[in-house]
Design brief:
The protein is mostly helical. The chain contains 4 helices and no strands.
Amino acid sequence: MNDFSDRMRRILLEERAKLTGNLLLEHQQFDEMIHQHEIGDSIDEVSTTIDKNLLERLGANIFMSVQRIDVALARMENGTYGVCVKCGKMIDKARLEALPEASMCIDCQKSVTQQQR
């Protein structure tokens, strides 16, 4: 592996550790809110429900980010990291430095984003 790949692997692993730590913290906060909900009044119930929904969405976003990182790490292992999954061209290093888990070049990502609108 070259220096760039080693650096990207370290960045991805550090980000994964940070995200999984955040996910565990949110899970603990969720458990605390559920406990408070059991002893709270109706105003607290509404607030707890809102907080619960927010935490669930945040947790889902973090989980999806961890999955993207895991895919990038797997692509490193099989030698396809940095290759666009859509067009097969190399992803610019600047894009990978900004978004290490990127699986598409900027042009393909723009195309996919426009199609989703």
